[in-house]
Prior knowledge:
Blueprint: E1 2-7, E2 10-15, E3 27-32, E4 35-46, H1 52-64, H2 76-84, E5 87-98, E6 101-102, E7 116-119, H3 122-130, E8 137-143, E9 146-151, E10 160-163, H4 170-183, E11 187-192, E12 215-218, H5 228-243, H6 248-265, H7 270-279, H8 284-300, H9 311-314, E13 322-327, H10 333-352, E14 359-364, H11 372-379, H12 381-385, E15 387-393, H13 401-406, E16 409-412, H14 418-427, H15 432-439, E17 446-451, E18 459-463, H16 482-487
Parallel strand pairs: 10-15, 10-16, 11-13, 11-14, 12-13, 14-15
Antiparallel strand pairs: 1-2, 2-5, 3-4, 3-7, 4-5, 5-6, 8-9, 8-18, 16-17, 17-18
Amino acid sequence: MKILQKHGETLELLCMPSELDFEIGDYIKLGEGNSFLLAQVVDVGYVDLPGGVEELLRELIVAEVDGVSSLDPYNTSSLSMMVREVRCVTAKVRAIFHNGLQAQTSPWLPSRYTATHEKAGPHLLHQLILGDENQFLFCPGTVGGEPINLPLTRLDGSLTIITGKKESGKSHLAKIIVEGIVSNGGTVVVLDVNGEYLSLDKRFDGGKSDLADALTLLHPGRNFTASLRMMGLKTFHDIMEHVYGTPATSLRELGRIWKKLEKECGDFCLDDLMDVVENEPMNEAVREALLSRLESINSSGFISDNDPTDLAELLKPRPGGNVTVVNLSKLLPSTRRLVVEYLLSHLSTLLSSNKIEPLFLLAEEAHLYLRETYWEDLVTRMRHIGMFPIFVTNQPDTIPELVYRQADNIFLFNFTNDTDLEKISKISKIDSETVKLLVKKMPPRRCLVLGKIVSDIPLMLKVRTSSLMTMGQTKLFFKRSSATKDHR
């Protein structure tokens, strides 16, 4: 293998077909002595030789003419054939190490003629990514056929996005990340919109999983309720405004009545609030607007003064970790947004007052229930108070650009749509050409890992299998029976 040329971060290498002992996405180490350059393979093609097209046409014509033979007394045709079969490997420079130290701005380059080359193994990548870190590690899968550990500390205090098209393995990886965080003593709150996380206490063979003792399932309206006192005027005002679209005039009247009840009664319930709205002198249109919305909230069953859920107690740190799954799968859209609005507001209050420890928030398809103004809140303020979001989506265009620009880590599964890839490549720290070349070719359960968690050295990761009952598989109508499989 020889270096042909370098333009910016793009490196072109010449090699024989027999030297292609790597896959797209693997790393090649090119070095001399104590210095080396780390380059990621993104494409393999043919060398554009002068007169190459004419030579191919000549061979096609000769092959069509019977009985024609060419004289080659010195057997130069075999050498010519080898030259024509040389491959051009396109790679992207990811790191430069000069005299044993990483020096990204160093002008050093290996010699075109004497540089040695080898496939960079998992051991070297481990060293570059982890450095001296040896605690709070988890194994999401393999690189180059070898297991690789990644540091959970790089998810801590960070914004993480897991995205890719459907059935590519996003939720499977999300569950592995949750398992890693919880097994290291962390706390995770999961907003489960599809009911995929309800069986984390079971293994796929039906046995008890390692998360069984850490798992708490919350079903809004059943074992997860809130009182008006816990909710407070601000949160209730936001729910009425953003979830139920209450007009400004009605909201002002609601605030006046709320403060009046607080002054006269102290604690009050939803029925008390509805009674006052029904009997208080006010414009009939305002009364109707408030009553219809309060009745909708009441019918959700989420607001109740009978033993409301104490989130501070539920989210206390546990030696074996803590994962709380909020089941949003069977709720009406308005009830779902009501629950999420309360949950995020209440968690912010608990974190701000140091009543609970920092936690991770895993949100599947958050665009279905998260109002626009909350995106900025999650990305900025909530991260500072100790809530670290992990967004999982198959529709990257539904997440505001603000979120992508603030993302610290991205797990990128297969996409074939150029619009989706263009959006993501704009905000990743690697070039758009790499994203498009690598991601379009990836099979299911493979992802490109970008960001802090890999020290900005992009990794092609094969996600491992999990012993958890992960659920989330697509339900099919036409199912191939085991008998048919055996027969085939």
